[in-house]
Amino acid sequence: MNYRSIEDLNQCIATNLSRVPLGTDLIVGVPRSGMLAANLLALHLNLPFADVEGFMEGRILQSGSRMKSYLKPFEDYKKILIIDDSVWSGKSIKEVKEKLHGLYPDKEITYAAVFAAPESIDKTDIHFDVCPGPRIFEWNMMHHDLLENCCVDIDGVLCKDPTEEENDDGPNYEHFLANVVPFFRPTRTIGVIVTNRLERYRPQTEAWLANHDIKYNKLVMLDLPTKEARQKANNYGGFKASVYLKYDSWLFIESSIWQAQQIANISGKPVYCVDARKMIYPNMLGETRGKVRQVLQKAINVVKSTFTSRQIA
């Protein structure tokens, strides 16, 4: 999994300013995530910027009083850089090119992307870095089609963690489950929601997810009778890692840094830590063990499938 943070985006832009054609006087972002890249690049270069639709209509975005002396009539902007955060299939850039074809024959337009897939580096005039797939970015993680191949925790990710008072395994906890405000409302279907909430709280958890229109394929909960039993087992990261491996997901999204490290080391696969805002990778020993577990799990799945087929036959 190739992950890029907003910090990575900014760093990549800042270290590649020399690749921007000399004399560029206007930056144009491809909506929507390309606007983030365009704004950062424009700030580094002290240039005005616009969105594609605004550019087509001959207007630029307001830049505050500090930029007033740098602004000029729209027709005087001659060297334009149109930028997207990334290029994969090249569809978005192609659509922009078609929209702008023949619109401004007096302007020199350069197309750019911050990150490009290896097979797409020819889709733009310039790119700042190569980022192969599978890939996921901090700024669109919870709204990416890839989410359907991910495991996602609830408490600390989709909503806040309960306080000690709320986490009483009784009426306070039930009130928390019903009324906690979500952090995120993902706009894509989550593959597997994995939580250390107890199985007996499934009805309340499913109701909360439905109430906030959070879609998912599977909800896996900890099948233990009480909070005390869960604390005694003390296998929070191990449980989540086992689910991560079982469903062969590409990424686990977790809030706790120590659980993220456990999950990564046990599974041998990356975990995105929401609290730390970074990707946690397995250590070498954990990665080796994780690969062994993946092979064993796949073998078990094959055996189960064969056994089931024979029973049906």
What does this structure look like?
The chain has 313 residues and is α/β, with parallel strands linked by helices. The protein has helices at residues 6-14, 34-45, 52-56, 91-100, 171-179, 202-211, 227-233, 236-246, 257-267, 284-312, and strands at residues 2-4, 26-29, 49-51, 79-87, 108-116, 126-130, 135-137, 150-152, 190-198, 216-222, 251-254, 271-273, 278-280. The chain has a 6-stranded mixed β-sheet with strand order 10-9-8-11-12-13, covered by helices on one side. The protein has a 5-stranded parallel β-sheet with strand order 3-2-4-5-6, sandwiched between helices. A two-stranded parallel sheet has the order 1-7. β8, α5 (171-179) and β9 (190-198) form a beta-alpha-beta unit. GO terms for molecular function: glycosyltransferase activity. Keywords: Glycosyltransferase, Transferase. Residues 21-135 form the Phosphoribosyltransferase domain.
User: Structural class of the helix and strand makeup?
Assistant: alpha/beta
- Low-pLDDT residue intervals, each spanning 5 or more residues: 284-292
Distance between the termini: 40 Å
**Topology pattern, helix = H, strand = E:** EHEHEHEHEEEEHEHEHHEHEEH
Q: Specify the biggest β-sheet.
A: 6 strands, mixed
**Alpha plus pi helix count:** 10
On the 0-100 scale, what is the average pLDDT?
89
User: Helicity level, as a percent range?
Assistant: 25-40%
How would you write the strand order of the largest sheet?
A: 10-9-8-11-12-13
Number of strands: 13
CATH topology of the largest domain: Rossmann fold
Number of domains: 2
Strand content: 15-25%
CATH class of the largest domain: Alpha Beta
Q: Rg from C-alpha positions?
A: 24 Å
Q: Which outline best applies?
A: elongated
InterPro entries: HAD_sf, PRTase-like, PRTase_dom
Protein name: Phosphoribosyltransferase family protein
Organism: Pontibacter toksunensis
Pfam families: Pribosyltran
